[in-house]
Amino acid sequence: MTAVPDLTADLIGALTAAGLTIAVAESLTGGLLTAELIRIPGASLCVNGGVVAYQTELKHTLLGVDPALLAEHGPVHPEVAIQMARGVRTRLSTAGRAADLGIATTGAAGPDPQGGHPVGTVFLGLSRGGEGWAIPLRLAGDRAAIRAQTVARAVEAVHTLIAGSRPE
């Protein structure tokens, strides 16, 4: 019998081996992504922590997202995701050093659309160094399925980023 690969365990191993740290900013996933990362023994070597900024105002006050951007586009927007990922890196710095990577989740998990965005519209934000990326997702299913898929896709995206490829 072949063991099922655990991509999260592989990610934590890769982050640790590379000496990289990660910080997580979550909205629609409400802590699920951080919980998935710290499920792996030894994650404390690379996971700085996570911030759940569920309310739009907290995306600004806790993560530094531009309030004009939030006012114009709302929280479900690719640039909001990028700014969340950038902001969490500095907000969750350790020993005066920002996290090497930031990952953020924002979107409409349902049951109702949010800000004109249909259920299943999700943006992942990633930040490393001076760069930032947004990955748009169109997910299907109920609220729990959309949130679970978002976590899985976020783990994949960070894995892709540290492997040296552009996350998409």
Short account of what is shown:
It comes from Cryobacterium mannosilyticum. With 168 residues, the chain is an alpha/beta fold.
Description:
The protein is α/β, with parallel strands linked by helices and 168 residues long. The chain has one domain (7-143, 150-162): CinA-like (Maf protein), CATH 3.90.950.20. The protein is built from six helices and five strands. It has helices at residues 7-18, 32-38, 56-61, 67-73, 78-91, 143-162; strands spanning 22-26, 47-52, 101-107, 121-128, 131-138. It has a five-stranded mixed β-sheet. The chain is globular.
What is the CATH architecture term? Alpha-Beta Complex
The count of DSSP E runs of length 2 or more, i.e. the number of strands, is: 5
Helix content: 25-40%
CATH topology: Maf protein
Average predicted confidence as pLDDT: 95
**Residue runs with pLDDT of under 50 for 5 or more positions:** none
Q: Percent of residues in beta strands?
A: 15-25%
Strand order, sheet with most strands = 2-1-3-4-5
Q: What's the Cα radius of gyration? A: 15 Å
Domain CinA C-terminal: 7-160
Protein name: Nicotinamide-nucleotide amidohydrolase family protein
Keywords: Hydrolase
GO molecular function, one term: hydrolase activity
Question: What does the secondary structure layout of this molecule look like, with pairings?
Answer:
Blueprint: H1 7-18, E1 22-26, H2 32-38, E2 47-52, H3 56-61, H4 67-73, H5 78-91, E3 101-107, E4 121-128, E5 131-138, H6 143-162
Parallel strand pairs: 1-2, 1-3
Antiparallel strand pairs: 3-4, 4-5
Helix pairs in contact: 1-6, 2-6
